[in-house]
Amino acid sequence: MSSHARSLLDTIRQLPITQAVRVINVCGGHERTIAQAGLRSLLPPHIELIPGPGCPVCICPEADIRLAIEIASHEPVIMLAFGDMLRVPINDAAPAPRTLEQAKAQGADIRPIATPTEALNIARTHPQQTVVFFVAGFETTCAPVAALLAEGIPDNLYLLMSGRLTKPAVALLLDTDTPSFDALIAPGHVASIMGADEWRFVSAQHQLPTAIAGFTAEGLLTALYAVLRQWLEGKPQLDNCYPQVVKAQGNRLAQQLLQTQFQQLDAPWRGIGNIPASGFELSAQNAAHDARQHYSTYITHADDPIGTMPPGCACASVVMGHTKPNGCALYGKPCTPQHPIGPCMVSDEGACRIWWAAGISRP
Question: In angstroms, rounded to a whole number, what is the distance separating the alpha carbons of residues 126 and 149?
Answer without folding.
Answer: 18
